[in-house]
Amino acid sequence: MDDQHTQHDNEAKQAILANIEKFGCHLSLLEPDNYLPGFVYSIGLYKNYGHPEIICFGLKTDVMASIINHACDLIKNGEIITTNKLYSGFLEGYHIQFIKVDKEFYPNYLGYAGWFYDMSFDFPVLELIWPDKQNNFPWDDNFNHDWKFKQPLLDRNTDFKFYEQKNLGVYTTKQAFEGDPILYVYHNEDGDWQFHTSLEPNLADSKLVCLEEITKLDPSVNEIYHLQYGWRAWRSSRYDEWQYGEDDIIGDTESIRNNEISDLIKDIKKIDFQDITSAWNWLIAGYKNVLMVTKFGDMFIVDANDEISWLDTGIGTFTKVASSPIQFEEFLRDPEKTATWFLTDLYLELQEQQIFLQENEVYSFQKLPVIGGQYTIDNVKPTDISVHFAINGQICEQLKNIPNGTKVHIKVEEPKKKPWWKF
Predict the structure, then answer these.
(1) Co-location of 183 and 298 in the same domain
(2) Range of 82's domain?
(3) Engineering a disulfide at 99: which of 51, 155, 206, 324 sits with its beta carbon 3.0 to 4.6 angstroms away?
(4) What is the pLDDT of residues 256-299, one digit of tens each?
(5) CA–CA gap between residue 257 and residue 263 (Å, rounded)
(6) Whether residue 282 is found in the same domain as residue 347
(7) Residue 289 parent element (H or E)
(8) What is the pTM of this model?
(9) To 5 degrees, how large is the angle CA 294–CA 221–CA 41?
């Protein structure tokens, strides 16, 4: 899929350059999906004629291409299109207008134009606005309500990019208003939006709020305004970029097989590493740059040379797994490696049995594999993360360098549950 995308991207860029060279401008067309309208925009008008580029939404793509081509012809003949003016000749029987596009919207709609203009958005753009059949424009009170979201008005509302009313009721939980980051977003087939802070939200914590409240609470959700019906978005922490795709249940077999690693790791932004690594200093001293903590309480750690090692807290080993972050990213696409590192099959069994984690827990083996414990669901229990790392670290330290079959007496200091969430 990546190769196909790269090939398509290269072909699109070549077409842009060829059309601008031949015709003076290029039209980039994006078809509508099941949620958002299609749109067309020009590339090259500003470079060749010093005129703002033009974008149009919500009509059939061939109609939008035709009316923007008409605008291009006018511009080539020296006409300057301006805002706050009615224009005829674009749509038969109707006037149209133009508004100035706020640069805040450029990355959302004008990606190839940004590429063409030296990877920047330092160029002006006008949006062509069409009326309803009664010649009302979108800002008029009597504009056809059914068409309201067919063409977003890109000169306003930069802090609210969704294609719905600001007072639309959406679902979330009280934790979102208590400081927890929104990590999972669902746009249901029926149009409902859900914004959750955890993979398994508690129904008792649910809240119905206005969509605008969510965007004010966490402006970064505006980045996924475009989620189609039946799609979802997710991220590991508030600092990570959103990923998105069709809404298969997070944690199901296909999801895990597709290496959605965010489903299999903890939010490291909230973990006190001085606490959880203290019982492992005998093995990982000097390796404190933690990259990931898995839901089975293992860690991936980066050293000073950017090499990545895997701490398996079930058997007490610390193994180099990648020579660089780039190589590690490649390995994360390998189902065999992820099955070994993240215990995906066991994780799926736990989800099927509805054995879920709280925010301060990991799955811990009751009898560690290092002393013969099995990788089975009946040997796993959700455990406080501090307790998990403290006990496992003490046991594995006492067993290091002891030959197999040796009888041992293990002494473990009972750890106290520590407040590890950072608020």
Answers:
(1) no
(2) 2-147
(3) 155
(4) 333 468 889 998 877 888 889 999 999 998 775 888 999 999 99
(5) 11
(6) yes
(7) strand 289-293
(8) 0.60
(9) 120
